[in-house]
Amino acid sequence: MFKKILIANRGEIAVRIIRACKELNIKSAAVYSEADKTSLHIRLADEAFLIGGAKSSESYLDGKKIIELAKKIGADAIHPGYGFFSENYSFIKNVEKEKIEFIGPSSKSVSLMGNKTAARTLMQKNNVPIVPGITTPIKTSKIGKLQAEEIGYPVLLKAVSGGGGIGMRVVYNSKEFDEALKSTKREAKSSFGSDEVYFEKFIENPKHIEVQILGDKHGNYIHLFERECSIQRRHQKIIEESPSSFVDEETRSRITEAAINAAKACKYQNAGTIEFLMDKDKNFYFLEMNTRLQVEHPVTELITGVDLVKQQIRIASGLKLNINQNDLSIHGHSLECRIYAEDPEDNFLPSTGKLTNFNIPAGPGIRVDTGFEDGSEISMYYDPLIAKLICWNNDRNSVISRMKRALDEFEITGVTHNINFLKLIMNNKKFIDGKFDINFIDKEKLLDKKLDIDNNEPITKETAAFIFSALMQNEKNQKISSYPDDNNSKNFWTEQIYE
C-alpha cells in the first residue's frame, strides 16, 4: 500500500479521500487555493499546501505544480477525485512518466473513452448497445443532414470531447440543422478545444441509468449494480438513488453484463461508471463511460457495504480485488440529494458567501459528505456544491421519508440554497411513485412552484405579500426593529417566506 497520497482536489471529495486514507493508515497531503483557506479538507489532512491563486487555472488545474509538489513531498500516488484532472489524458500521462501512481484508470483507457465517437465504435464491437447515430465526426453540414435523414429526426448533436451537458443541441428537422451545427461547434471549441461534433438519435423522455464497475490490474471485473440518475437540471444530476425502482431483475442482469463488457473492451482499471439511456420499454443504450469516481458513489456504497475509495487505492497499489461478484447483493435502498449554493428561482444561479449557520442532519441511516463547516466561504470560483445528503433505509418509500426528515433538519444561512426545491421533489407524487424521466423538472413545472416552510404546501406571491404585511403590522404593534434594513425588509421577508 502507499505511504502518502496527494489529493489533487478540494471540497467534499477531498475530505472523502482523506478519511479513507486515515482508515488505511496512509498519510494524506491536501492542496488548497487562496479561495479555500477556510475549507474543511485543509484541517483534516495530515499535510496541506497552498497551491496557488483562487482561479482553478492558477491552482487546482496547474498540473505541473501539482506533480512537482508530489515529488517534493514524497507522495507515491495522486488521487484526482472527480472533475479537474480526473479525466485529463495529458496530466495522467505526465504522472505516469514520473513513476507516480495515478489512482484511477490508465491514460490509454481515459483517452479511448474520452473520445465519444471512438468509444461508441468500441462499444458496438463489444456487444454494448449504442444509440443509433454516427460513429465519426460530422464532415460537412450537407453530409450531416443526409445522415440525419437516414437515421430519422429528432437527433442530438454532441461535442466529440464533451461532457456535463455542454455542447449539445436537439435538432427536430433539416431546417434547424445548419444553425444548430454551427452553434454546437462554437460551444465545443470554446469548452473543449475541439469543434468536432457527432450526433445520435434523440431518445425522447429516457431514464438515465448507470452501472458502477471495478476492475483491477489482474483482469478481474465486478459490477456494483445500477444507479438511477434521472432527476436533473440543465443536464446536471441533483438526485440519485440505488437501485433504480424501474429496473427489474432481468433488465439488471442485461445492463450490468453490458457494463462489464464495456470495461473489458478498454482494459479498464480502477473505479468507473458506464452510463446508459433507457427508454420506456427498458431498452438501454450506451451513453458514455465516466473514467473516474462519480459524485453519486455514496448511494452504491450504502446498498453494497463497499468503500469505493478504499477499493480505488487498493487497485492502484496493485492488489487484486478482494470482492467477488457473488459476494455482492443489494441491501435496502439509498438516496442522495445534492445541496447546492444556487437559486432555483433564478435559473439555478450560483450563490456565494460565508456559511454563518451550517447545521447538518444526523440520526440512523443518514450520511453527509461536505467540505465545509461554519465560517467556510462558498466561492465564485468553483462548483457551488455545498454537501451531499445521503440516506439509507430498507425500501424506497422509507428512504424518501427519511430524506424528508433530513432535509427538514438541514440548516444553512449565508448563501441561497436549493433545499426547499429538493423538498418539493421529495413531496411530488410522480417522484414518489417512480414515474419520472430526465425531463421531470420541466414536465412537472417545478420551477413555477414554491414551498411554504411550515406545511410544504405551494403558496402564491400574493399570499407571501399578505404574510409580509401582517408581519410588518405585528412589528409596529410590538415596536420591535428586527429586520435587516428598511430598504430591503420587504424583499427579505418575501424571500424567506417564499423559500
Supply the key terms:
alpha+beta, D-amino Acid Aminotransferase, Chain A, domain 1, five-stranded parallel beta sheet, 22 strands, 25% strand, disordered C terminus
Task: Give a description of the structure.
The chain has 499 residues and is α+β, with helices and mostly antiparallel strands. It has four domains: 4-103, 3-Layer(aba) Sandwich (Rossmann fold); 132-201, Dna Ligase, domain 1 (2-Layer Sandwich), CATH 3.30.1490.20; 207-448, 2-Layer Sandwich (D-amino Acid Aminotransferase, Chain A, domain 1), CATH 3.30.470; 461-498, no CATH class. Helix content is 36%, strand content 25%. The chain has 17 helices and 22 strands. The strands form six sheets. Strands 13-12-9-10-11-14-21-19 form an eight-stranded antiparallel β-sheet, with helices on both faces. The protein has a five-stranded parallel β-sheet with strand order 3-2-1-4-5. A hairpin with a 2-residue loop joins strand 6 and strand 7 (166-171). The longest helix has 19 residues, at 174-192. 46% of the residues are buried. Residues 451-499 have low confidence and may be disordered.
